[in-house]
Amino acid sequence: RGRGTSEGEFQLFAHEIEDGIDTINWAANLPGSTGKIGMYGFSYQGMTQLYAASAKPPALKTICPAMIAENLYSEWAYEGGEFCLQTNLGWAIQLATETARLQEDEQAYQELYQAAKKFSFSTPIPALSEVMNKYGLDSFYHQWLENYKPGEYWQNLSPNLENIDLPMLHIGGWFDTYLRGTINLYKKIFCRSKFLQKLIVGPWSHIPWGRKLGAINYGLAASNPIDDLQILWFDQFLKGVNTGILERSPVSLFEMGSNEWRNFNSWPSNNYQFYYLASTGLANMREDSGTLNDNYPDISTDDIFVHDPWRPVPALGGHATFPAGSFERSELDCRTDILTYTSEFLTEDLHIAGDVYVEVYCTADTSSFDISAVLSEVKPNGNVYNFTQGYIKVVSKDLPVKIYLQPTCIKIEKGNAIRLSLSAACFPAYLINPGIDKPPKEVRLIEAKIITITVSSGENNPSLISLSIAGNREQGTGNRRENIPLSEVHHQHKS
């Protein structure tokens, strides 16, 4: 509604339920229609599936939501309580640009178009964009900033899927900013559904879905199989054709590193490995000071670093910035406002698959601060490549601080190491924490404080990383071999 050639006024997530019902009923009654309807699409078009499904239209038989959020606060607009600045602002500018085009407002269109190419954060209030203040005062962007805590606004805005049960093909990417939503929805529906719930996650960002992302080429196996898989899915659930999809594993995860697809009977969560942080107290100065170990050391140590809003740690790859993906970050890790903790080089391959979190005993000299946690692979030549990360706004004094990183699936080869990098910013992916208790729309740049943060490790403060371990293909852990691997779906469909 109000997009493309459609009439009406566009209001984000305001009319999707009623419009979804109308569209499904229209399609079900087209000449030649069987009356069985399926939906597919990603991002906003993935969300429209969830809103439509929440109304339980009888004709809707299956959906294929890709890169979505069930909880729009914690899985879309905010991460760990901090505003996802770059993705939210980028999308707001994109939608405002389309509105200007429809209204034939060339000046607004040109200014918004240029703003989309190069973000500007020159306003006195960092959260507010000059171009959005000028041309997007009715944008969702301002409402999302105003509602900076979870509550009734977000509960009413998010789709209600409590009583929904359909066959669903859940699609995600390891570097997609909305992966948390995809995984959480799959877990929730899988536990109670009487229908097949299939999850597939590739080494992709929000867009595109190909074999090359960031600095890494993941090989031909990573090429997008989704179109062909969706055709098999719809043939099965809309036409009743036996495509073999019911015999396939419920979970297919692309394992980075080996660059192969791995199949599981459920989301991998049976085996965990912990790495404990240790340090000589100079983890912000020397690469050999901070270490990751199988056990926590007897001696407790503090690492101290200083966050300066004048020169915040920049975002580099990951899931919450553009461009997304894995990049070489050894130079970035040399900054003195980043703590690094590195393991010994591995004596055997490490297969990580599933949830990852960090527990850190950290305090600051302000009432609030942010922690960015990045997990990377360290090569023997010293190159460092990020593969998952997470972010949190710390407002409580409770310890330890728990940071949920993006779920992942990666093989760290023998001879390589893993590294945890901790900082207090990841800009402009996330809004910078000013260290004061004010709503984001009221914080002025001049008010932002320099923040001193202390991270403690050792027996009294056992800071750690928790990794979900899958084992290798021979060992399994829910692995399941299949007659037709995912990479051959294309050939099966063509035949």
Defining traits:
disordered C terminus; alpha+beta; single chain; 495 residues; Jelly Rolls; Rossmann fold; 21 strands; 2 domains
Question: Would you write up a description of this structure?
Answer:
By secondary structure, the protein is of the alpha+beta class. It folds into two domains: 16-81 and 148-264, Rossmann fold (3-Layer(aba) Sandwich); 272-469, Sandwich (Jelly Rolls). The chain has eleven helices and 21 strands. The protein has helices spanning 16-28, 44-54, 73-77, 85-102, 106-117, 130-135, 140-146, 152-157, 179-192, 226-239, 489-494; strands at 37-42, 60-66, 78-79, 82-83, 168-175, 197-205, 212-213, 216-217, 251-255, 260-264, 272-278, 291-293, 301-307, 339-342, 350-364, 369-378, 384-394, 401-412, 417-423, 451-457, 464-469. A hairpin with a 2-residue loop joins strand 7 and strand 8.
Quick synopsis:
With 495 residues, this protein is α+β, with helices and mostly antiparallel strands.
Helix and strand layout, with pairings?
Blueprint: H1 16-28, E1 37-42, H2 44-54, E2 60-66, H3 73-77, E3 78-79, E4 82-83, H4 85-102, H5 106-117, H6 130-135, H7 140-146, H8 152-157, E5 168-175, H9 179-192, E6 197-205, E7 212-213, E8 216-217, H10 226-239, E9 251-255, E10 260-264, E11 272-278, E12 291-293, E13 301-307, E14 339-342, E15 350-364, E16 369-378, E17 384-394, E18 401-412, E19 417-423, E20 451-457, E21 464-469, H11 489-494
Parallel strand pairs: 1-2, 2-5, 5-6, 6-9
Antiparallel strand pairs: 3-4, 7-8, 9-10, 11-12, 11-21, 13-20, 14-19, 15-18, 15-20, 15-21, 16-17, 16-19
Helix pairs in contact: 1-2, 4-5
